[in-house]
Queue: 2 jobs
Job 1
Amino acid sequence: MKKILFILLMCLLGAKSNAQLDNRSVYEYYNYLTTLPFDSITSVPKAVNKYKEIFRGQNLSVCDTAYVVFYEFYMRVLDDTPFDREMLIKISEKHNRNLTDSLADYALYLKDNGFVLRQDDDFVYVQPDDQYIASHFFFFVSREMQIYQDKLMKEENQGFVKNDKLMIPLQDLADRVAWWENFYMKYPNFVLRRDIKQRYDSYMEAFVFGLPKTPIFTGKKGALADTYKKAYQNFVKQHPGTYSASIIERYMDILRKCKYKACDDALLFTWKSL
């Protein structure tokens, strides 16, 4: 875990081009996080309080960088903490109503330490609490980081892919492609541009090629599904002049030449990322 945090820190600080950026406070924060246990969610409020202590009054660029270091720590704590599965299941079964004292205490324990319970079909799990993040960090970080975090949390709650199947409407996927391109272009100095690019690529790949259980080509003849064809046409109309629209236009030209059926040129279609 310490190695992962250190690599992340080096990438973040190495990406900074502003010579006036003072990284000593970020190093101090990183060193503090490595002293906290990663297998207990009680480490999260300690990390939050230390963040506030160190970065109150510092410039937004430093605060954004430190927040990214915190968030990586936050997610590692989530991964490493051994939650009481029996308690989680019992709480979910009661839908947070009429809980016994012990169950109510455990639900509050999660909430106080920055996490909430979520149920997806028959699976119960713990996830980050977006309200906790907003209440503690949005005062410190830049507006673009607030926008990024809010969008990220909403997409995580909505889902994306499960068991090789698209879990959101195709229009929502198209909207994500357009949104992340716009964000990438609007904030050229954003600290997490690499993450945005990867997220954009994942969405664009799913939009262009489909998924095993949400295929773009269907039937014995491998014809282009009407849902995708309409989605591509709408995307070009709704987002003219964007880089993503130019990709879809090139792809549609190939599909037309292939009479809207699977062909080598369509299956091997490539594009340059943002």
Job 2
Amino acid sequence: MIHIRIVMLALSSMVFMGRIVSPPALAQAPTYDFVACDSTIFQDNQLNVKPSSTPNGWKRVGGKISVQQKDSSRCLSIDQYYTKFSPILKAKSTLGSRWTLELDMWLDAAYDGNPGVQIGLEGKGEVLRLVPNRDDFSMQLSSTRETAATPDDISHDLYYNRWLHLELSFSNNVLTVYCNHHYVMASPALPSAITALLFYGDASTGMNMLLKDVRIAVPKRKAS
């Protein structure tokens, strides 16, 4: 007896029990779908502050920050190691369960792999710290560290000496990160409410570590 076994490989479909069955669709990568909230509770504005002065609207916790002129913009400069500072929200404003954060950031190529601006989400202590960098973005959590590759068109040497637009969206206890209109990564569900944001940086003399156009917003309250 001759046993003949025929194996058919198909890329687009397969025959099973007389039916044509399409293979499962490949998982779709998340797309850029950032939408800013519409009620601003913090907007950085240093137009009337002289360069080298202390910026308005921020509380310095450690290190040094100053206002600098970069191209045609007034921006914040992180000037020392171990610098930490927080935005002063509008009176009676809180972050709540849903908010968005947008900013532009600049890092000198001389940092060569060391991170620039970092953002901490505070609740019961530091719940998460976001560390954008040229090769990857990382989220440092209490017991784990999540990473995602920096989008190709802003990675490695393309990361430096330019303004990059960072966008964060917080909803359902999950932080989603976008940069230059790319989806980058999302956090796992966080264990506690976020009550404050802190900005960090470890700057070296003569090497730009900058940010500007910082905006924090929440959804508009529905009229009662």
